[in-house]
Specification:
Layout: E1 2-8, E2 11-18, E3 21-24, H1 26-29, H2 34-38, E4 55-56, E5 62-63, E6 72-76, H3 80-85, E7 95-99, E8 104-105, E9 111-113, E10 120-121, E11 124-130, E12 146-153, E13 156-157, H4 158-163, E14 178-179, E15 184-185, E16 195-200, E17 203-209, H5 217-227, E18 235-237, E19 259-264, E20 268-276
Length: 278
């Protein structure tokens, strides 16, 4: 099942994509927000005849496929090849940081270049959404708390992240720095065998696989839920493979007009253009 939120006539409509058709799910789901996941989430739609729901013939683009998560928890340095290109040791346990929920944007929305930004970078990542409350869960039952998976671009301003003091969140949380979607995909056979790709202006920068994870998803969920309760609708993003601009020699960063394309096997494609935020 592919869930998305479509912009139409100034409103946002929750929808289910079935084959090539979008069906309006607002009458049965309200919105794809924490309340939806608390009430059963995608499992609650299994008994619904999706084909009988109204068809959406036209829309104005994708909104973030998840609305109002209480938090976005990120795992850093979770690919062997990315840790190597960063010149850092393999972490002994998952590295955790946060992005602000206000940074969420739709899959094809522009990436805003903040005034004075010098090092705007890209990171294609597999993200997942918590479907059932997770507090101190074991790795054996961890994946049972996942509602679905999606593409996420962890846009990062490296100067803010590394040279402005404090936490990484400074470089991760500007408006538009977390494009998600286009879909939340609920039926992924093996999230540890997905290809991730990212290109800039048609040039491939990242081409990795979740098979290169340092910490698999059950370990990530067990670890994070030791330190905080994960609530329905929370977003967890799992790190990026090698090929980020900061890891290049010479380093390369995004400029106004650059076109970024991200893709993960079976989860869809994002396309963004970088614009100055004036």
């Amino acid at each position: 099942m592919k869930l998305c939120r479509l912009r139409r006539d100034g409103a946002i409509v929750p929808a289910v994509r079935q084959s090539e058709t979008y069906h309006d799910a607002s009458s049965v789901a309200g919105d794809f927000d924490p309340d939806f996941f608390t009430a059963g989430g995608p499992a609650a739609l299994q008994s619904v005849d999706i084909g009988a729901l109204p068809v959406i013939d036209a829309h104005d683009g994708y909104a973030p496929c998840i609305a109002r998560p209480s938090k976005i928890v990120c795992v850093g340095l979770n690919y062997h090849d990315h840790a190597k290109e960063s010149g850092m040791d393999i972490p002994k346990e998952p590295v955790i940081f946060f992005k602000s929920p206000s940074s969420l944007s739709g899959a094809n929305d522009p990436i805003l270049l903040p005034p004075g930004a010098e090092m705007l970078d890209w990171e294609v990542e597999l993200a997942f959404v918590i479907g059932a409350r997770a507090k101190r869960v074991s790795r054996e039952g961890a994946l049972g708390h996942v509602a679905g998976f999606m593409v996420l671009n962890d846009v990062s301003e490296r100067h803010y992240q590394m040279m402005r003091g404090g936490q990484w969140a400074k470089g991760k949380s500007y408006d538009s720095f977390t494009p998600i979607g286009p879909y939340l995909v609920t039926d992924v056979a093996d999230p540890h065998a997905l290809n991730l790709m990212l290109s800039v202006n048609g040039q491939q920068m990242q081409n990795g696989s979740t098979a290169d994870f340092i910490f698999d998803l059950p370990t990530v969920i067990e670890h994070i839920s030791t330190f905080m309760t994960l609530e329905p609708g929370d977003i967890i993003t799992t790190g990026t493979p090698a090929g980020v601009g900061f890891g290049m020699d010479p380093k390369r960063f995004l400029q106004p007009g650059d076109k970024v394309r991200t893709e993960i096997t079976g989860l869809g494609v994002q396309e963004q253009v970088v614009v100055e935020d004036r």
